[in-house]
């Protein structure tokens, strides 16, 4: 998976890069993603000599080898001043790759918080290798939801039967977030919801930047008991459809318990 940047510039309608009173400013920009393995992925623009508001024009910079789930990663943008002995750091910004759109788009981020002058912004166009979010594709549907039959069983209360259900929750912008639940399974420590489907809608324009909590509850008369939970980074999901399997119960004297399900996004994903 890769991403390419072009039309890279310091926003000409805003401030200028810092200037050293003893030296001219020779800026360049470094892009860095901390991928798995040693060293991460990095790439740099060329150096612009004596230019406090540089524009790299037709120059392109590409980050390759971002792995199978680039939407789960962050990218650091560093602006440096090239010096003879040690390059000076002018400013930096973090970009959540989970906020990027499928195919192409634009980025504009603040890289220098000037105190006595205008803040400085770097702006650029980007093109992914096909991964990203899709406008108005704001949903995800789960089906074939079950407790993994090849692993452990849900906890059992010695005084009460276990009546499990699963709640899916995403803390979206605005009040309350998005939540949905399976039906309750009576007296079933290894439930399978079969053809039942659960859908989370209204996940916003960048669902890949969000996380989802999966909670397994035991339905009780007065207050439902929490059995176990798991967190899923939506930035790790594939375009279209895939499978999730996560641990929801860390049993001490028995096998751990896993919930598994198929999912289908609104088209967004890696």
UniProtKB/TrEMBL annotation:
Gene3D superfamilies: C2 domain (2.60.40.150). Pfam families: C2. Keywords: Calcium, Metal-binding. The keyword Metal-binding applies. The keyword Cytoplasm does not apply. Residues 1-111, 116-247 form the C2 domain. This is C2 domain-containing protein. It comes from Prorocentrum cordatum.
């Amino acid at each position: 998976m890769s991403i390419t940047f072009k039309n890279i510039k310091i926003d000409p309608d805003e401030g200028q890069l810092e200037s050293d009173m003893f030296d001219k400013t020779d800026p360049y920009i470094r892009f860095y993603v901390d991928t798995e393995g040693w060293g991460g992925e990095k790439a740099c623009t060329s150096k612009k000599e004596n230019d406090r508001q540089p524009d790299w024009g037709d120059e392109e910079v590409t980050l390759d080898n971002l792995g199978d789930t680039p939407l789960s990663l962050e990218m650091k943008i560093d602006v440096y001043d090239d010096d003879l002995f040690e390059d000076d750091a002018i400013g930096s910004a973090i970009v959540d790759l989970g906020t990027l759109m499928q195919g192409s788009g634009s980025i504009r981020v603040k890289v220098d918080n000037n105190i006595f002058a205008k803040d400085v912004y770097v702006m650029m166009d980007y093109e992914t290798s096909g991964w990203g979010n899709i406008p108005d594709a704001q949903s995800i549907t789960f089906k074939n939801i079950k407790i993994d039959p090849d692993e452990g069983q849900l906890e059992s209360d010695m005084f009460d039967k276990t009546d499990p259900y699963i709640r899916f929750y995403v803390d979206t912008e605005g009040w309350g977030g998005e939540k949905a639940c399976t039906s309750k399974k009576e007296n079933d420590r290894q439930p399978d919801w079969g053809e039942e489907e659960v859908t989370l809608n209204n996940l916003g324009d960048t669902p890949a930047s969000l996380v989802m909590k999966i909670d397994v509850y035991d339905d009780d008369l007065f207050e439902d008991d929490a059995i176990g939970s798991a967190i899923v980074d939506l930035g790790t999901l594939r375009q279209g459809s895939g499978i999730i399997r996560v641990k929801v119960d860390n049993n001490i004297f028995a096998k751990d318990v896993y919930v598994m399900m198929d999912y289908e996004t609104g088209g967004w994903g890696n």
